[in-house]
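User: I'm curious whether this sequence folds into something compact or stays loose and floppy. Could you predict its structure so I can see for myself?
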Amino acid sequence: MKEIRTEITIPSSTTSASMGMILDVKNGKETIIIGSYEKIRDYLINGKESDDIQIAYRMLGRLAEEMNDLAMSDNRMDEIITASNGLYSNISSAQGNKNAEQYVSILNGIYSRAPRANMLRNYIIFFIYTNYLRIHKAQSGELHLFTKAKDNAAERFSAEYNQIIKDMLTSYKNLPKIEESDVQYWDMSQPMDNEDYTAHICHYNDNGESKVAYITDDSFIGLIQIYADILNQCNKKVRNCKVCHKLIIVERENDKCICGNTECEKKYSSDRNKAAQKKSRSNEVTAIYNRFCNNCANFKRNFTNHPDLLEQYTTAFKKKRAEMLKEKNLLSENSPREQIKAFESLCNDTYFELSCLNEQLMEKRS
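Assistant: Here's the prediction. I'll summarize afterward.
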């Protein structure tokens, strides 16, 4: 097969769409490499650079930021989907490379070699292009003789494309969403789909220092699982901001889980204050009721040796306690301060009534 190589900036592979990852947690750095497994390993072991790999050196956590970018950029996927559908049609109809050039050109035009390029978006493009080359090459070997062979090739392409899209995009369904928007993010507090993936551990030497890289083939889920696991072992975790739900990296013992956005900080503080006020009001109502019950129950001690008087007081006390419980249940943490004060006043008045009954019964003791 004559490869499509005219001014192509996308790495080329007919074996695997792999992604390598090196995490330097101590220095807050991460390295992401896109290419075939063989090319990535050759670079790590032998230092051989190639146009068929792309390397990005950046601050630790950029991978999480790229996931946020993908979640907020569904419209930027339109061109990728159009190109993928075109390549699928090309394979299903067993057309030659020339008919695929317009779709490869679309992918090539949005693939970025810039230092700050979104490597996850690049990986989607690389994955589609790799699988097109791989399946088209296999299809060429089938000599296009049978319709079934064409259908099988198209199905393979579709299945592999749908798998990576499922990994990277459709997983946003039913996950944390910003209020009044369609932006959805991975829920990193929940276990990810337990799907099989191929992962490699590559030990290599970098200027006399032994290092480890992790490489996953044709899988985004695998990379994220490894990413999260390594950070967790280093006392860090990938979590969602409790306000905007963006992915962030925090210290493992940090339960605050708020991104650095000022608005998120304000809303988080405001919500905590409101929750504290509600809890305080709820606790206050309960405290008023419990105080009433305890104080009134103490009067029963005066009639320990007088069963008839004890029964008379207990009957009155139970009736009043039920009335106060009914009033208490009408209140909540959202009740206005005036209503809580009115309930407290009612409890005090009822306590006074029972204290008067207590005095009357005490006079009857022989």
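Summary: The CA atoms of residues 92 and 154 lie 5 Å apart. The two ends are 114 Å apart (CA to CA).
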